[in-house]
Automatic annotation (TrEMBL), chain A:
Localization annotation: Mitochondrion
Predominant location category: mitochondrion
InterPro entries with a match to the protein in the record: P-loop_NTPase (IPR027417), Ribosomal_mS29 (IPR019368)
Protein name: Small ribosomal subunit protein mS29
From TrEMBL, chain B:
Protein name: Small ribosomal subunit protein uS13m
GO terms for MF: RNA binding; structural constituent of ribosome
Organism annotation: [Candida] arabinofermentans NRRL YB-2248
Entry keyword annotation includes Ribosomal protein: yes
Any Gene Ontology CC annotation: mitochondrion
Family: Belongs to the universal ribosomal protein uS13 family.
Record's keyword annotation contains Zinc-finger: no
GO terms, biological process: translation
Length: 569, 121
C-alpha cells in the first residue's frame, strides 16, 4: 500500500512543481498581499522560527525581495490510515519565497487504486507574519521573555477587594472619609453616672477600642456613615439595660439573665453594645460570643474528648481565648490562679512542663498565654478559665452571646460523627459550658448573662416556650421544637427585653442628627418642600420626620436610616 | 496549593468533600462526605489544611473503594456480559443505540456518541 501512496505523492509533487516554479510574478498577481508579507519573514528553516525573530522586520524586507528562486521542500507531517474507506494523506508544502503553507489532500480509494479526487489546490495563504494569530504568538513570546517579577504597583489588591460592599465595610475603613468629626466631637460621651436618655451619644475612646476588639459593630449597622460610632440612648430600652447592668454589680450571675428580642433592624445588637460599654466602663470582664452560629455551622474543627465524652473545638476556643485576653488583659492580670492547672490528654512530659501551680504569682493572664503559646487543649483551658472566673469576687463577669437563636433554630449542628450522622449541640464541650452558665449551674459571683437574638435565624417554638410565651406543642416536629432546650431555658428564668420600634420623638432625634451631618441624600423635593413652608426649616424638618416615620413602618431604625441614606429607597 | 491524592491533583481551596467528588470517578458528594465524617474532618475543612497523615488516611479509604479504572472495567465487563449473552441490552450497546427504549428518529445523541464497541465514558 505504501507504494501506491508514494506514487500518488510523486504525482502531486510534480504537479506542485509545475504550478509553483513559474512563480513569483504570478503569485504577486494572484495575491499581492502575500508577496508583501512574504518579504517580512526572514529566511529561516521553519515558519515558526521565522516568527520568533520579529525585530529585524525592516531590514529583512530588503533582503527578501532579492531572493532569486523559490526553493521547495516537502515535509511529511502525518499519515493517517483508515482501513475501510479512504486514505487521507496530509502533507505540508513549504515555499520559501512566500513562506506560505499549502495543504494538499489526496483521497484514494483502496479497492480500485484509482485516484478519486486530487485536490491539490494551491491556496497561497497569507503569511503568518501579519495575521492576528501571529500577533498573538508574538504577544505570547514577548510575555515569555518578560521579567517575571511581580509588580505591586499594577495590581494592588488589598483585603476585601473580592467582597461586596456590605462585607467590605469591615475592612475598607470608609468611616475615615466621613465629614462629621466636628459634630460627633460635640456629642456627650456615654456615661454610667449621667445617663442622658433620649439623646445621641458617642462612646468613650478607651472603651471604643475594646468594643472594636469585642466585635460589637456589625457591618449592616451603617456605622461607616460616621467618623466614630454613635448611639441613641432610648427612653425605655436603654434605661432597662442600665438597670440590668446595675443589678449585675450586686447579684450573682444566676439571678441576672437577660435575653434581648425584637424584630429585624430594631436595634438589638446596639442595645447589647450599650451594655458592653457599661460593663467595660466599670471594670467588667466580658466573655464575648459574637456569633453563636460559628459554634454550630461546621466552620471549626472538632475532636472527641474521651474523658468528657464530648467534642472539643480547639480552633474556636483558641480564637475566643485570644479575644478574651485582648479585651480583659488588664483585669485578668490582677486575678491569681485559684486551682492547679494540669492540661489533659498530652504526653506526661508536656503535662509537667505546661502545668500551672497556685501560689507563685501566676494569674489567669498566664493561663491564657500558656494556651496560646503551647499545643495544649485550649477548650479545656477555656472551661477551666470560666470555672476560675466563677470563683473570683473582684470583678463582675459577663457572658454575652449574640445571635443566640442560632442554637435554638435546629436541634442538630452541621458536624457529623463517624457514622455520618449529625451531632446534637449538647455533645460539644463549649456549648455545654455556655448552657451551664445560662442554666445557672455555673455562676459568677458578680455579673450576668446577656443574650441577644438575631432575625437572620428563625425563631421557632423552642425559644418561645423557653421564654414562657407559648405552651409547648409536644407533637411538633423534631426540627421545629426541642423540648430539652426549651425546658432548660424555662428553668433558667430568662428575663425577656423586647425591643420596640422607635417612637416618633426618637425618629425625630435620629433624623435631625442625620440632617445635621448632611447625610440625607435622597430628599429630592427638598427645595419644593422648603418653598411650601415658606423656607421654615423647622417646619420642613418636622414634615421630614413624619415622612420618615411613615416610610420606616412606624419607627424601624434600620428602615429610617435606609430611607435617609440609600438613593434607591 | 495542590494536594496530590492517588496521583491526582486536587485544588487546595476546595472543601474536602467537594474536591474528592470532583476528582475521582465513582465518588459523589455523598460518599465523599462519608469519608470526611469517618476520618473526622469538619465540614468546612479545605484541601490545603490536610496533614500528610490525613492525606494517607484518605488514600487508604479510596484504595478500598471501587473507583476510577477499577469501576470502569467493572462497568465494561457488565456490558460485555450482556453482549455475550446476546441480550437486547447488549445488542443495543453494540449497535450504538439507546438501551432503555428512548426514541432514535431524532436525538439519541448520547447513546450514539458513547455506546461504541468499547463503551466510552
Amino acid at each position: 500500500m505504501s507504494e501506491e501512496i508514494k506514487a500518488v505523492i510523486s504525482q502531486t509533487e510534480s504537479k506542485i512543481n509545475d504550478t509553483v516554479n513559474p512563480t513569483t510574478v504570478e503569485e504577486s498577481e494572484v495575491a499581492p498581499t502575500t508577496v508583501e508579507e512574504s518579504t517580512v519573514v526572514p529566511e529561516t528553516e521553519t515558519p515558526v522560527e521565522a516568527e520568533a525573530e520579529t525585530e529585524p522586520v525592516v531590514e529583512e524586507s530588503t533582503t527578501a525581495t532579492k531572493t532569486e528562486e523559490p526553493k521547495l521542500k516537502v515535509e511529511w507531517l502525518s499519515l493517517f490510515l483508515r482501513q475501510d474507506i479512504l486514505y487521507n494523506i496530509y502533507y505540508c508544502y513549504c515555499c520559501y519565497c512566500c513562506s506560505s503553507l499549502t495543504m494538499i489532500n489526496v483521497y484514494i480509494r483502496r479497492s480500485s487504486n484509482r485516484l478519486l479526487s486530487l485536490s491539490s489546490s494551491f491556496t497561497f495563504t497569507r503569511s503568518l507574519s501579519s495575521t492576528t494569530s501571529n500577533l498573538a504568538l508574538q504577544g505570547s513570546q514577548s510575555f515569555a521573555k518578560k521579567n517575571q517579577s511581580y509588580d505591586n504597583s499594577k495590581n494592588r489588591k488589598g483585603s476585601g477587594n473580592d467582597l461586596n460592599f456590605s462585607k467590605s465595610i469591615l475592612t475598607k475603613n470608609y468611616k475615615k472619609k466621613a465629614n462629621n468629626l466636628s459634630i460627633i466631637q460635640d456629642l456627650p460621651i456615654l456615661n454610667n453616672k449621667n445617663l442622658k436618655l433620649n439623646s445621641i451619644v458617642k462612646y468613650d475612646e478607651e472603651i471604643l477600642k475594646k468594643l472594636y476588639i469585642l466585635g460589637s459593630f456589625k457591618p449592616n449597622q451603617f456605622n461607616e456613615l460616621f467618623n466614630k460610632p454613635i448611639t441613641l440612648l432610648r427612653n425605655k430600652e436603654s434605661h432597662e439595660i442600665f438597670k440590668f447592668y446595675e443589678n449585675t454589680l450586686i447579684k450573682e450571675s444566676k439571678f441576672n439573665k437577660l435575653i434581648i428580642t425584637g424584630e429585624k433592624g430594631v436595634g438589638k445588637s446596639t442595645i447589647l453594645t450599650q451594655f458592653h460599654s457599661h460593663a467595660l466602663s466599670s471594670d467588667g470582664i466580658i466573655l464575648p460570643i459574637t456569633n453563636m452560629q460559628s459554634l454550630l455551622d461546621g466552620s471549626n474543627d472538632f475532636k472527641f474528648n474521651n474523658e468528657l465524652k464530648t467534642y472539643d473545638q480547639q480552633m474556636y476556643s483558641k480564637k475566643l481565648l485570644k479575644k478574651i485576653y485582648n479585651l480583659n488583659k488588664d483585669l485578668l492580670i490582677q486575678l491569681p490562679l485559684l486551682n492547679d492547672f494540669i492540661p489533659i490528654y498530652d504526653s506526661n512530659k508536656l503535662k509537667l512542663s505546661s502545668s500551672l501551680k497556685i501560689g507563685s504569682n501566676i494569674t489567669l493572664c498566664d493561663l491564657i498565654k500558656l494556651s496560646l503559646s503551647k499545643p495544649i487543649n485550649s477548650t479545656h483551658v477555656l472551661t477551666f478559665l470560666i470555672n476560675e472566673l466563677s470563683k473570683q469576687e473582684k470583678f463582675p463577669t459577663y457572658l454575652s452571646i449574640d445571635n443566640f437563636n442560632a442554637l435554638t433554630q435546629y436541634n442538630y449542628t452541621k458536624y457529623k460523627d463517624i457514622d455520618d450522622k449529625f451531632i446534637k449541640y449538647n455533645k460539644f464541650t463549649i456549648v455545654n459550658t455556655l448552657l451551664d452558665l445560662i442554666s445557672g449551674q455555673i455562676s459568677f459571683n458578680k455579673g450576668g448573662i446577656i443574650l441577644s437574638t438575631s432575625s437572620n435565624f428563625k425563631i421557632n417554638d423552642t425559644l418561645k416556650v423557653g421564654l414562657n410565651l407559648i405552651e409547648p406543642n409536644y407533637y411538633a416536629k423534631n426540627s421545629e421544637f426541642d423540648l430539652e432546650l426549651s425546658q432548660l431555658l424555662l428553668n433558667s428564668n430568662l428575663e425577656n427585653l423586647k425591643i420596640d420600634r422607635f417612637s416618633i420623638t426618637e425618629v425625630g432625634k435620629l433624623v435631625k442628627f442625620l440632617n445635621d451631618c448632611d447625610l440625607i441624600f435622597n430628599d429630592f423635593n427638598k427645595i419644593d418642600e422648603l418653598n411650601s413652608v415658606n423656607g421654615d426649616k423647622d417646619e420642613y424638618l418636622k414634615n421630614l420626620i413624619n415622612k420618615k416615620y411613615l416610610i420606616s413602618g412606624g419607627g424601624n431604625v434600620k428602615d429610617v436610616i435606609k430611607s435617609c441614606v440609600l438613593g434607591y429607597v | 496549593m495542590v494536594v496530590h491524592i492517588l496521583g491526582k491533583a486536587v485544588r487546595g481551596k476546595y472543601k474536602i468533600n467537594y474536591g474528592l467528588s470532583a476528582t475521582f470517578y465513582g465518588i459523589g458528594l455523598q460518599s465523599a462526605t462519608k469519608i470526611c465524617s469517618k476520618l473526622g474532618f469538619y465540614p468546612n475543612m479545605r484541601m490545603h489544611q490536610l496533614t500528610e497523615q490525613q492525606t494517607m488516611a484518605i488514600t487508604k479509604e479510596l484504595s478500598e473503594m471501587d473507583i476510577e479504572s477499577k469501576l470502569l472495567s467493572q462497568i465494561r465487563a457488565n456490558i460485555q456480559l450482556k453482549k455475550d449473552n446476546g441480550s437486547y441490552v447488549g445488542f443495543r450497546h453494540a449497535l450504538g443505540l439507546p438501551v432503555r427504549g428512548q426514541r432514535t428518529k431524532t436525538n439519541a445523541k448520547t447513546a450514539k456518541n458513547l455506546n461504541k464497541l468499547k463503551r466510552r465514558f
